[in-house]
Amino acid sequence: MQVSSLNEVKIYSLSAGRSLPEWLSDRKKRALQKKDVDIRRRIELIQDFEMPTISTKIKVSRDGQYIMAVGTYKPRVRCFDTYQLSQKFERCLDSEVVTFEILSDDYSKIVFLQCGRFVEFHSQHGHYYKTRIPKFGRDFSYHYPSCDLYFVGASSEVYRLNLEQGRFLNSLQTEASESNVCDINPVHFLFAMGTAEGKVECWDPRTRNRVGLLDCALSSVTADTEIEGLPSISALKFDGALNMAVGTSTGQVLLYDLRSSNPLIVKDHHYGLPIKSIQFHHQLDLIISADSRIIKMWNKDTGKIFTSMEPEHDINDVCLYPNSGMLMTANEAPKMNIYYIPVLGPAPKWCSFLDNLTEELEENPESTVYDDYKFVTRKDLENLGLAHLIGSSLLRAYMHGFFMDIRLYHKAKMMANPFAYEEYRREKIRQKIEETRAQRVQLKKLPKVNKELALKLIEEEGEEQQFSKKRKQKNLPSLLKDDRFKVMFENPDFQVDEQSEEFRLLNPLVSKISEKRKRKLKILEELEAQGGEEEEEPEGKASDAESSESSDDEKGWVEEVRKQRKLLRQEEKLKRQERLKEDQQTLLKPQFFEIKEGEEFRSFKDSAKKQKLMKKTLEDRLKLEEKLGTLNVSDTTVGSKQATFKLKKSEQHRKQQEAEKQHRQERKALRRSASHLKSRRGRGRLFH
User: Fold this and answer.
1) Which pLDDT score, from 0 to 100, does residue 235 have?
2) Which is it for the CA torsion 237, 243, 245, 246, positive or negative?
3) Where is the composition biased (Acidic residues) (predicted)?
4) CA 117 to chain centre
5) Which of 18, 124, 518, 528 has a CA between 20 and 30 Å from the CA of residue 138?
6) How far is CA 337 from CA 17, 50, 375, in A?
7) Are 118 and 93 in contact (CB under 8 A)?
8) Quick one: three-class SS letters along 303-353?
C-alpha cells in the first residue's frame, strides 16, 4: 500500500504494487508471496479489479453493492460484487462503449451507448434489446419521471427514447451544431447539455422548450488563462437544485448558480487538457475535478486546493463511492486504481478494516531509510574534524558526499562548536528585535550589507520614476522591496567583493561611479549619526559637467580596462615577489632515503643524460645507438631497410651473470680435483 501526502492530507493507494498473473497455480502464488516482500504486503481489495487493456468508464450502483466498469480489448463490461470482493460476471459486447448508465438499484437494468450508434439494453440475465439512433452519440441521461432517455451527439437534435412506450419521441431542436455532454438535475429535473461552441442550453422536459442559455466559453477566459481555440464543454454536473459545474476542453472548471449568468468561481487546471469528470463532496464542500493527468480537490467557495493526485497513467473516468472516502479511477492501463482518503469520510462497510489499518499506520509511522542518517560533504567533514573517518564503516559514500549516523553528527558538531546554540539563540533574538523595530516609524536607511548596491538601485529607481512619469508608464517593482532578494541585503555571505578580479574587469568604470556613491554614503552616515533629517540628494555638479563626464566615461572605457589589467598584473608581480622572499627565508632540511637490498645507488647524472637523449631527434638517437653497437641497420634484397636492436643489460644483471659464470667455473674445478683424487687412490691399491 502506497501512502502519499499533500497539504497534510494522506492518500492511500490500495492498488499499488505488482499483480500476479491469472495462469499461476496456487502453489506458485504462495511461493512468490513467501519470497517477495512487496507481494506479501500488497492489498488486493477486490480480486482481479482490472481490464485486459484499458478501462473507459466506472460507476457504482445506487445500493452500493456493485461496481461496474467497461473497457477493451475486446469490448466488455465487468461487474464486481463488493460483498464477495470478487467479480460477479463479465459480458463481451459487439463494439466499444462510449458511456453507460445503471437504471436500477442493482445491476438488473443497464443501458450502453456504443460507438456504432447502437443503444444496447441489458437485464439481469444478459443482453435484452438493441436499437440504433440516427447520429453518433456522445452522452445520454435518463429522465426518471417520464422514463425518457435523452441522447446528444454529432447533431443539432436531442433524441428522445421512451422506455415505457418503447418508441422514439419528437426530438428537441437546438441551436448547437454538436453536443458533447448532458445531465438532468435530480431535484427539479432540468435538462442541460454542453455544446461544442462552449455554451450550455437548459431545457424544461415538461414543456420541451429552452429556458436558459449560458455562454461558458467567454466566462472561462480570464486575464491569466492562455487559450489557443474556442473552448467547448467537456463535462457537466448538477449539485442540488441551484448549483451546476461545467468543465471546458481547455482545462477550466466553472461553478454556476442557475439564477445568474456569471460564474461564481473559475478554477484552472493549468494543463490545457479537457476536463473528464466532475464530482461533488458535500460534507467538506469540495469539488473533485479531473483531466487526463491530475485529479484536483478544491473548495467550491474559495477555490483553494485541498489536495491532488497524479496517477501513473492517463485518467479516463473518476467515481466517488457514496458517503465514504474511497475514490476509483478508470485509466489507460489494465489495472483500475482505488484510493482511500480518510479525511473525506470513513471506509465503506464492505471494507471497514481499512479504517483500523490506516489508524495503525498513523500511530506507528514507518521511518524512511535516511531518517537516522545525515548527508555531509567532504568540506563538512573537514570542518567537523572527521576527515580521518573517510574509508571507514562509519561513513557510506554517496554521490558527492557521505551518509553518517545522525547521533555521531550531533556529537561531533557539539564538540566542534559547543557555543552553536548560544549563537543561534542570539541571532534569533536579534531577528525578533529587528522585526519589532520594523513596525516603528523609520527614516529611510540603507541596509547593512551591500550599501553601495542599494544606493545604486535607489538612484536607478529615481531615474526610472522620472522617465515613467514623462512617458506615463507603470513603475517596475524595486529589488529592495522584493522579498525574493531580501537576503542579499541582510546576509553578510552575499556581500559583493569589489577587490576581486572578476568584479574589476566586468566593471571598468566602477571607480569613478563608486566615488560619487561613497560621498553620498558618508553624508548619509553622518546624518544618521547626528540624528538629523536625511537629505533627498547631496549637492552635485552642474548638468553640463555631468554630461561631459558621461561622454568622457564612454570614451575612456578602453583606457579604464587597460588600467585595471595593469593593476592586476602589478598585484600578481608583488605577490610572486613576496612568495620568493618567503621561499628564500625558509631553510631546507636534508632528507635521507633508504636503498633496498640488492640495488645500487646511481648518480643523478644518469637522469640528466636520459633527459638530454629524449630531447634529441630520432635520427640522432639512431646514430648514437649505432656507435654504441646496440643497433644495426642493413639493406635487404628487396630494397627496404632492416634494423636489429640489442637490449642494454643493466649493471646489476651483468654482475649477476659474471657471478654465475664464476660459480660454474668453480664447480668444474671441484669436479676435476675430485676425479683426480679417485684415480690416484685406485692406483695405490693396485701397487699394494
Assistant:
1) 94
2) positive
3) 528-538
4) 44
5) 124
6) 11, 9, 36
7) no
8) CCEEEEECCCCCEEEEEECCCCCEEEEEECCCECEEEECCCCCCCCHHHCH
Specify the pTM: 0.54
Query: Which residue(s) pair with 288 in the sheet?
Result: 279, 297
DSSP-assigned letters across all residues of 526-548: HHHHHT-PPPSS-----HHHHHH
Residue 101: its H or E element: strand 97-102
Q: 3-state SS of the chain: helix, strand, coil percent to 5?
A: 35, 30, 40
393 within 8 A of 362, measured Cβ to Cβ: no
pLDDT at 221 over 80: no
User: What are 326-360's pLDDT values in tens digits?
Assistant: 999 999 988 899 999 999 999 999 888 888 888 77
Q: Please list the residues that pair with 66 across neighbouring strands.
A: 81
Residue 437, C-alpha cell as written in the block: 523595530
C-alpha distance from residue 254 to each of 187, 202, 418 (Å) = 21, 16, 59
User: 3-state SS string over 434-487?
Assistant: HHHHHCCCCCCCCCCCCHHHHHHHHHHHHHHHHHHHHHCCCCCCCCCCCHHHHH
What are the residue ranges of CATH 2.130.10.10 in the chain? 2-363
Q: How many residues does the chain have?
A: 688
Q: Which residues of 601-632 are buried (b: 16+ CB within 10 A; e: fewer)?
A: eeeeeeeeeeeeeeeeeeeeeeeebeeeeebe
Cβ contact 624:618 at 8 Å: no
Strand pairing report for 127-132 and 243-248: unpaired
Residue 615 has, within 13 A of its CA and on its CB side, a CA count of 6
DSSP string of 576-617, one letter each residue: HHHHHHHHHHSPPPP---PPPTT-----THHHHHHHHHHHS-
Q: Cα 345–349–355 angle (5° rounding)?
A: 55
Give the whole-angstrom CA distance, residue 9 versus residue 284: 13
C-alpha cell at 242: 441551484
**Dist. CA 201–CA 194, nearest whole Å:** 7
CA distance 496 to 305: 41
Q: Which three cell numbers stand for residue 354?
A: 481499512
Provide φ and ψ at 256, rounded to 5°: -115, 150
CATH of 2-363, one of 2.130.10.10, 3.30.70.20, 3.40.50.300, 2.60.40.60: 2.130.10.10
CA–chain centroid gap for 152, Å, is 42
* Spatial distance between the Cα atoms of 207 and 114, rounded to a whole number of angstroms: 29
- Looking at the DSSP assignment, which residues form a beta bridge with residue 202? 192, 212
DSSP SS3 for 284: coil
Element (H, E) at 31: helix 26-35
Tell me which of 230-234, 301-305, 426-430 is least confident. Answer: 426-430
Q: Which pLDDT score, from 0 to 100, does residue 672 have?
A: 82
| CA distance linking residue 304 with residue 266, whole number of Å | 11
Q: From CA 134, how far away is CA 155, in angstroms rounded?
A: 9
Across the strands, what pairs with 110? Answer: 102, 122
**66-72 and 76-81 strand pairing:** antiparallel
Q: How far apart are CA 92 and CA 78, in angstroms?
A: 9
Span of 55-59, 169-173, 638-642 with lowest mean pLDDT: 638-642
Sheet containing strand 137-143, edge to edge, reads: 137-143, 148-153, 157-162, 167-173
pLDDT of residue 540: 44
Q: Dump the DSSP string for 392-426.
A: STTEEEETTEEEEEHHHHHHHHHHH-TTHHHHHHH
